[in-house]
Amino acid sequence: MKKFIFLLTGILLVAAAVVIATHIKKQNKLPAEKSNIQIVASFYPLAEFARQVGGDNVDVIDIVPAGLEPHDFEPTPQDLAAAVYSSGLFIFNGSGFDPWAEKIQLELAEKNIAVINMSAHIALIPGEEYEEEGRPRLDPHIWLDPVLVQKEVSIIRDTLKNIDPKNAASYDENAEKYNARLSSLGQMYQDGLASCAIRDVIASHAAFGYLARRYNIRVLSIAGLSPEEEPSPKKIAEIANFAREKNITHIFFETLVSPKLAETIAKEIGAQILVFNPIEGLTEAERASGKNYISLMEENLKNLRTALLCQ
Asked: Which pLDDT score, from 0 to 100, does residue 297 have?
């Protein structure tokens, strides 16, 4: 009799679990037909651009937590399962900036998840480093050129229109408004950097190639394409000599990495340090204060004008 009771109890528990699981599945499925598109971005700028274009029709996840440097970030399997694999659109930078994302893009396509590899749509420029074969590594930092960002915004718009055609007009309107702001930002840089006493700056790492090319600035980087790469003593000596030769009075450091090297070189040549933010992510303080891509780019311009002795 006891065995029968235990068996019956077990059957009832299993049946209840199945009913509950089915109910949860329905609850998750039914709202999904009316819910927003879930977008996952491999780092902050792409998340910001997606929010601006998607507006109220999307929910955007920046998979890199605030305060972390995204160059060496890699999500856990749990992160991928909870966010990326359940998304409707995954956006990543490419060109070696987020290698974990490049590894899963084919898998996502097989799951019918839309994928944007931004670097595949932009004409990339060589960086300061070289591959083992002697070829220059391509610079992935495309988001620091406001003109190229307008192209990124348009790519996100077109992808969302394809996924969600019923809200195409909204995506068109949002993209047009944000691109107008980006165009104004680009003009601010054009005007603000037109009359400067010097055109050379020293920065923490080689993140500013596209910005420098667009606005005719020469940037010497302390580290390579990744801020974690330590420069050799020879490179540090070259930087110090370059600073003296070009009468550079400011050294730029970043918000997400240690300013130690910039401070060391600045002290050696009697220069001051300023923030030049590559906007690879937000700090907790920046997020709490409501700062965003455009406001941080405006701060970068202000500090650039100081360092370049602009009128």
From this structure: 98
